[in-house]
Amino acid sequence: MGAMDGRRAIVTGAASGIGRATAHLLAREGARVLVVDLDGDGAEAVAHEIRAKGREAIAVRADVTRDADCRAAVDQAVEAFGGLDTLVNCAGVIRRANAVDLAEADWDLVMAVNVKSVYLMAHHAVPVMAGSAMAESASAATDDRGRRASDGQRRGGAIVNIGSGWGLKGGPDAVAYCASKGAVVNMTRAMAIDHGPQGIRVNCVCPGDTDTPMLRAEARQLGADEAAFLAESAERPLARLGTPDDVAQAILYLVSDASSWVTGTTLVVDGGGIA
Q1: Contact in structure between 260 and 153 (CB atoms under 8 Å)
Q2: Which positions ≥6 away from 131 have C-beta within 8 Å?
Q3: Considering the entire predicted model, what is its pTM?
Q4: Domains and CATH numbers, the chain
Q5: Sign of dihedral through CA atoms 267, 102, 244, 34?
Q6: pLDDT digits over 134-151, tens only?
Q7: Is the dihedral of CA 175, 180, 185, 190 positive or negative?
Q8: Residues carrying an active site annotation
Q9: For 87-97, what is the mean pLDDT?
Q10: Which pLDDT value is given to residue 1?
Q11: Dihedral, CA atoms, 100, 104, 106, 108, nearest 10 degrees?
């Protein structure tokens, strides 16, 4: 039995990096996964990889800064899987600049992708999860109290938002990114308070520097040598960059029953960087 057997999941930003690793891991653990990304071909490639391993996955091209696209993604999950238990908001973007040099359009882009998308996906996913909670609670009315108490997540759902170490402390030449990830951290707390009574747990994972296409894009934005930039990023107690799989394992913990009494928390996964 996998940790996600019977679960129905949406992973945004799933064509690459942490989102891709998360989609693969949740599927391997038994979830049916909706692979969502603005890169439709990339999303389909990931879904194909998952299906090739005998698991169930569907790709959806979506711009998660648009309400209609987020609504359509949730509707697709409900139509294909019969419901929704799990949402992982991995879609993200970075623009490296300070407040003087950053263009307004880049500020708007970072806030839309990193913050607005979390709101929009939850706006449409939470009512589905809450509806599932009520339906399963009613169907369990004749069961013993112990079984119902241990089945908290199955009666609602779990949401994980991807923050950043720079959502907990500042960083250079990244004013919009730091602002957006700080917002994600506190949005997570607010959502956990609001939706806990509906059986929905909401947590945040804050990765440190992780070897993804976005990290390598930072080097290009800063005009830095990529190899030197990655080597500097690995300067932390565990003396290496994170991998997408490192972060995906933390996400799996927070969406599985292993964390059934965990909500409103921020899990730092950074090789000791903040320490």
Answers
A1: yes
A2: none
A3: 0.92
A4: 8-269 (3.40.50.720)
A5: positive
A6: 555 555 544 433 333 334
A7: positive
A8: 177
A9: 98
A10: 77
A11: 130
The whole-number average pLDDT for the span 221-242 is 96
Helical H segments across 53-144, by residue range: 67-81, 104-111, 117-139
What's the rounded mean pLDDT across residues 196-214? 97
State phi, psi for 205 to the nearest 5 degrees. -110, 130
Q: How many helices (H) and strands (E) does the chain have?
A: 10, 7
Q: What is the pLDDT of residue 151?
A: 40
Q: Which residues contact 9 (CB under 8 A, 6 or more apart)?
A: 23, 26, 31, 32, 33, 34, 84, 85, 86, 87, 88, 255
Distance CA 19, CA 219 (A): 21
Is the pLDDT reported for residue 66 higher than 50? Answer: yes
| Contact call for residues 237 and 201 (beta carbons, < 8 A) | no
Q: What are phi and psi of 10, to 5 degrees?
A: -115, 130
